[in-house]
Amino acid sequence: MSPAAWWSNAVFYQVYPRSFADSNGDGVGDIDGIVAHLDHLVRLGIDAIWLSPVTVSPMADHGYDVADPRDIDPLFGGMPAIERLIAAAHERNIRITMDVVPNHTSSQHPWFQAALAAGPGTEARERYWFRDGKGAGGELPPNNWTSVFGGSAWERVVEPDGNPGQYYLHLFDTHQPDLNWDNPEVFEDFATSLRFWLDRGVDGFRIDVAHGMAKPADLPDAKEGVKVLSHSDDDPRFNNPAVHDIHRGIRKVVDEYPDAVTIGEVWVLDNLLWAEYLRPDELHLGFNFRLTKVGFDAVELHDAIENSLAATAIYDAVPTWTLSNHDIDREVTRFGGGEIGLRRAKAMVMAMLALPGTVFIYNGEELGLPDVLDLPDEVLQDPTWERSGHTERGRDKVRVPLPWSGEEPPFGFSSSPDTWLPMPADWAALTVEKQEADPHSTLPFFREALQLRRERDEFDGTGLEWLTASPDVVVLRARGGLLCVLNAGTEAIALPAGELMLASAPLVNGELPPDSAAWLA
Ligand code: TEU
């Protein structure tokens, strides 16, 4: 690890492209919508964008099903749009990192179409996981694996002769067949894609399902009762040790471009196993999801931070922090919703921004957006809804378009009222425009917090020391002497001596009220 690397203390902002801003009035966000709102990100004070997938896709999983990894989908504006975004972002000192999806392709990818047409036993099928079924007529899937989105992870195909035949593996939707990384062509093509984007000025990659890719050769059954959209370490579908060679290969390619960064989505819970992804010749950064699992509780927060720091220390990697993303409930909702959820979310953000390392903010977090829990059934689009037999509503609730301005939907997100997910009328109070005019709202709070993090010496350095970690209160001293106090109790508390830089809620008689946090120098 190079301590001076640009990403080692950066603030990343995740743009979910469908939801950020729509420039052409089709109701779906696009790349030129991002270009048009870059100044929002400049004022917010971020260092880099993590752009969820914008490559060519039938959108079965909204871009995480890639049909051409080296072209931009027309829905998002095509190649000229990403060239405009890279140029416009770089002019503003904002880096662009792209999401890449190595575990699977779209079922519309030419490789998969060729595999279907070529039939059993052909080389074309060796790029994926085609297997004969079990049972006399092959009527049972090859093993008991389930899809992360629900149902079997195997889909039976109709062979070129018109009869039901082999099955293919899809850990996610049926439209996302898993690639066979034992086939060297798969790596070569992925390397070509990485260089393709790095040559066009992209600054790095977020690697989707970075703990996937490698599969155990014998495809053993999993334990029963694996839950939808969840992960455990005793799961043969993920974290096969052979994945690490794949990461070493990826790192060699990325190292041809000295400043480029890789950030892996690693849903592995055991610290030793998780840390292996961050060995010096593997990923630069790994998402650590522990902060997304804590309640508004001082002990849980303390333990999550300690745990994450311990995990990253194993190979001297840079810690990363994130409270939510496009797969995870927004923290305002997790912490109770409404006014109290927002208060707690702001306090947690201050705790996160106090920590040494790199942080990831999910678009809309800076506005204090909650989940939209009352989306009507008929608008739901996450494949999880169908695949779980309508028992899991899925992740659409965290992907509702951002409100920019005006008094009614679509709040400046689009010129069309027909947005891809409906926007709640009460988001009139949460628009960027409203919050810019209200110094006590969430957006100015975020801007100030990020500005302090960027400018004050107290945020230099990488240390962390616990002063208090009682059941209700966390007091930590981090980096260059920054004190962060978080009150998760029910009584106001006295603050330690020092210059108050920021509080997430007004002090009451000089004391820090419940559900809030403060930074002191
Ligand atoms: O997610 C991988 C993944 O395993 C998640 O679905 C996870 O199970 C869930 O978030 C746990 O809360 C990545 C992308 O982030 C997701 O959006 C894609 O749907 C998925 O890969 C398939 O590409």
UniProtKB/TrEMBL annotation:
What protein name is recorded for this chain?
Glycosidase
The UniProt entry's sequence similarity note says: Belongs to the glycosyl hydrolase 13 family.
**What's the source species for this entry?**
Mycobacterium rhizamassiliense
UniProt keyword list: Glycoprotein, Glycosidase, Hydrolase, Isomerase
Judging by the UniProt lineage, the source's domain of life is Bacteria
Which GO molecular function annotations are given, in alphabetical order? alpha-amylase activity; isomerase activity
Does this UniProt record's set of keywords contain Hydrolase?
Answer: yes
Set out the biological process GO terms recorded for this chain's protein: oligosaccharide catabolic process
Cross-referenced PANTHER family, in alphabetical order? ALPHA-AMYLASE FAMILY MEMBER, NEUTRAL AND BASIC AMINO ACID TRANSPORT PROTEIN RBAT
* Domain Glycosyl hydrolase family 13 catalytic span(s) in chain numbering: 14-399
Could you confirm whether the keyword Secreted appears in this record? no
